[in-house]
Recover the amino acids of this structure.
């Protein structure tokens, strides 16, 4: 079993894809791979490089998502043979973003206004948005075909064409209803692993708790 930990709190970039691709190249094709995804997303190029690499890996690839894997993280998860989540974990849409603008929204602006009222920059962005959406949709469909067959194209459009806002949470129940190969029994070891990858400390924490298991010890009498 090969184990690829990929817990990041910043956006996925080409340096990340280089590291993951190097690890996959060092893994025999038939060896099963576990990959841990904990990321808000990142560059489509980098995420797609990783997704295609694990998609083509001959051994079973299992994506473990302890907390969240949004955008590019979801793109990578879709390439795995199986996604293991917990009850509270979320994935997200993979619709492309051009800077601060969703590609789908740029296309709607161009469709709803006369061309004479649209500035050149917006028209150029809309042209890029159309290309980006087509590329992402086709890539997602490519990753899903072996798992979903006839449903791959429909789900690829749903996930990539701006159906929801980019931060829309896709829960385990949602993923299951889409027909994705998901499980909801992530081992506690993967949750404990996240303690080794703390987020950068803020000046003043907003949540404090004692990191111990809480167990119900039965009724202790009147609370008054």
């Amino acid at each position: 079993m090969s184990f690829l930990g990929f817990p990041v709190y910043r956006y996925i970039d080409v340096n990340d894809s280089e590291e993951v691709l190097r690890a996959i190249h060092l893994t025999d094709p038939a060896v099963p791979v576990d990959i841990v995804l904990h990321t808000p997303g990142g560059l489509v190029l980098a995420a797609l490089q990783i997704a295609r690499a694990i998609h083509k890996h001959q051994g079973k690839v299992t994506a473990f998502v302890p907390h969240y894997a949004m955008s590019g993280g979801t793109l990578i998860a879709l390439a795995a043979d199986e996604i293991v989540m917990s009850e509270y974990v979320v994935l997200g849409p993979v619709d492309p973003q051009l800077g601060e603008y969703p590609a789908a929204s740029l296309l709607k602006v161009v469709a709803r206004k006369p061309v004479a009222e649209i500035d050149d920059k917006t028209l150029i962005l809309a042209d890029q948005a159309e290309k980006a959406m087509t590329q992402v949709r086709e890539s997602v469909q490519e990753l899903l075909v072996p798992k979903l067959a006839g449903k791959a194209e429909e789900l690829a459009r749903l996930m990539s064409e701006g159906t929801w806002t980019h931060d829309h949470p896709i829960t385990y129940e949602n993923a299951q209803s889409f027909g994705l190969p998901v499980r909801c029994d992530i081992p506690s070891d993967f949750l404990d692993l996240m303690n080794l990858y703390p987020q950068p400390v803020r000046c003043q924490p907003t949540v404090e708790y004692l990191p111990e298991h809480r167990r119900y010890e039965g009724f202790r009498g009147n609370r008054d």
Helices lie at 14-25, 44-56, 72-79, 103-112, 120-148, 152-160, 172-177, 188-193. The beta strands are 2-7, 33-38, 61-64, 68-69, 82-84, 90-91, 97-98, 101-102, 182-183. The longest strand covers residues 2-7.
